[in-house]
Amino acid sequence: MSTKEVESVESILNKLPTKDRNFLMQVLYGRLPHYRLGPSKDSLKTVTDLEIVSCQFSCNEEQLRPPRKVTVGLLQNKLPIDTWAPITEMRKAMYTMAKEVLEVAHAGGVNVFCFQEAWNMPFAFCTREKFPWCEYAEEAETGPTTEFLKKLAGQYNMVIISPILERDVQHGDVLWNTAVIIDNHGDYLGKHRKNHIPRVGDFNESTYYFEGNTGHPVFETEFGKIAVNICYGRHHPLNWLGFGLNGAEIVFNPSATVGALSEPLWGVEARNAAIANSYYTCAINRVGTEVFKNEFTSGDGRPAHKDFGHFYGSSYVAAPDGTRSPGLSRTRNGLLIAELDLNMCRQVRDVWGFQMTRRLEMYAELLNRSTKMDFKPQVVKKSS
Amino acid sequence: MSTKEVESVESILNKLPTKDRNFLMQVLYGRLPHYRLGPSKDSLKTVTDLEIVSCQFSCNEEQLRPPRKVTVGLLQNKLPIDTWAPITEMRKAMYTMAKEVLEVAHAGGVNVFCFQEAWNMPFAFCTREKFPWCEYAEEAETGPTTEFLKKLAGQYNMVIISPILERDVQHGDVLWNTAVIIDNHGDYLGKHRKNHIPRVGDFNESTYYFEGNTGHPVFETEFGKIAVNICYGRHHPLNWLGFGLNGAEIVFNPSATVGALSEPLWGVEARNAAIANSYYTCAINRVGTEVFKNEFTSGDGRPAHKDFGHFYGSSYVAAPDGTRSPGLSRTRNGLLIAELDLNMCRQVRDVWGFQMTRRLEMYAELLNRSTKMDFKPQVVKKSS
Fold it and tell me: Range of A144's domain?
C-alpha cells in the first residue's frame, strides 16, 4: 500500500544550478544572499512591454447553483515617467497607460479590475516630504481619477478598484489611503480606507494618513462580493477575517512592498488568508524602482539615498482551497487575468468547515480580555 | 539605479525536468497531477533510518539581553509495527523508538522536544471503531507514556511535549486529544487540549473527542515560553493569535495530515502564524502510510479501503521574520533539530510593529457583534 513518494521539495531544488537554487530558496524560504539573473525569455504575448499571464480556477459543478465565473484583472506597473514630473504630466501618463491596459483587460474578459496601491502617483511616502506629494490627493467620489475611470468602467462593463491618496475635504482636508470602487455601470459604489498603517523600514505612512475609519466593507457587485485589504493590512489576519465575516468572496490586496524584508512573506500571507477565510485573494505589488529627486534616510544606518529598493511585483491570486496562480514577474509591467468560480468559496467551507469550527465566541471573549490594562495572560509555571 | 532582478520563481522552475517542476508546483502551488520519484540519495547521517536535518536561526546581538538560544527537536515517525498489533506491543515498540531518538536528540543539544500528534498509537480515527483504539487513551499526568517520558526528560534535561489520546477519569472517562508538557526536571508541567476538531475527509474526530476546554495556555519553561497548537488548529488564525496574546515564543503544531487536500496548505499556515504573531512555529506531520485491519469508507464515493493515504511528513520550523527551515522528507522518519534565538521575537515586533498596529479593540467589538444572531454584515450595495 505504501507508494514511492517524492523525497522533498528541497531534493529537487538541489538539482538546480546553485544560483537558481539559492534564488528559489530566497523567495520560498528567505534570507539567502541576493544576486542577479538576466530576464527570462518567456513567450508571452506583450502589449507595450506588458506581460500577460492568465489562469483559471475551477470547482465542482453543483445541482442547484450554476457556476459563478468571474474574471479578475490585476495590474502591476512601473511609473511611466520620472517621479519628479509635474503632477498633471504624471496623471496624463498614468491615464494613458491605464486606458491601454484596460482595453487589453476588456479583451481578456475581465469583470473586476484592480490597480496597485496609490496607483496614479509615485510611492513617495518614504521621502517624508509633504510637497508636492500631498497634491496628488483627490476626493474619492469626485476626483479626476475617479471621473476618468467611471467612463471606462461603464464602457467596458467592468468593476474597477482604484487605490488612491484621498483628500477628505468634508473633514478638515485630511488625507487617507483609500480604495475607490466603481461599478460596472460607471457609478461610484463606495470606498474603503486602509485599516493598518506601517511604521517600518522606509515607511511611517502616518506622516501622511492615519488608520482607516471605514470598518470592513464588502461591496456587493454584479460580479460577486468584493473587498479591499490595502497593503500592510495583509500582515493582520484579523483584517482578513473582518472582510470574511462580512461575506467577501474576493479580497484584493493592492500593495507596494520591496526587498528582502517582505519578499519571503509575500507568497504566504494573502494565500493564508484565502485558506483561512475560504475566499479568493488577489495580491498586487508594484514593480520597478522609483528614484526621487531629493535624498532621504531610512533609519537603518545606511547613508542617504534616493530610492528605497526594488518593488518586486510577483502579483498573484490565491484560491479558497489553497492553490495559487503563477506570479507575475519581479521585473516587468504585468497583467494577471484569472477566471474564478466563486462557487468554490462555499464548497471549500463545506469541505473544510473552518467557519463552523472556529469558535468565534471564545475568541471574542479572549480579545475583549486581552485589551484590558489588567489582562493576565494564561501562563502555566511550575509552582515552587 | 534599476538592477537586473531575477525574473520569477516560475522561470527557474521551468528549467527543471517537467516531472520535477510539476512536483514543485504541486507542493508550492497545488493541484497538479500526482506522480512518483525514487528516494533521494542525500548524505545525511542516519540512525535506524532516521533522517537528521539541523539548522539555525539567528538574529541581531543586543546590548542589554544576551542571546536566548534554544534548540528544538521535532520528530516525525512511522509506526514501527502493524496498526493492529496489541496495544502493549505497540507501546513497547514506540517507547523503544522514542528512547533511541531522544538519545540522538540529546546528543544534538535539543532542549525542547516535540512528538507528532497522538504519537504513541496509530492515527485510527478514520476507522470510527471505538475498539481497540479508545484503549490507547491514558491519563495525562499519570499515564504510562507520561511516566516513561518523565524519566528521560529528567535524564536529558529536556522539555518534552507528548501529544496523546487522553482519558479524563475525573470527568466521566471522556477522551481528549491532548498535549502533555513535561519539564526538563522530569516533572509534569501541564497539558493542553486540541481546540479545533476536524469534520473533514476521513476524519470526524468528534467521534472520539470534543473541542478542548483548556484555553490557550503558555508554558513557562527554562527554555522559553512554549505552547501547542494541535493539528487542525493550524487552520485557525485566531487559535495562533490566542497563544500569541498569552506570550508564546515557540508554538508547536503536532499534526497528522495526508494528501492532496492539505499538502498545498502545509507550508503556508504555520509559517503565516509565525509571521503574524512574531514567534517561532514548529510544524510536525506524521510520515508514512498506516494500513488498518478492517476496511472503512470516506464519504467521497470511493470504495471501502484500509488506509486513508500517505502522511507526507515535511515537518519544518518557521521564524518570526518569515524564514523557514528546510522540511524533513515526505517519506522517512526524521528528526529536525533547529537552534532558535528567542530574541528574534521581540526584535521582529520592534521592526514590523504588528502588535502595535493590530487594533485589537476594533476586532474584539467586531467578533462580539458577528456572533449575535441579528448580526448585519457591513455590505455596500447600490441604492436603486
Answer: 50-351
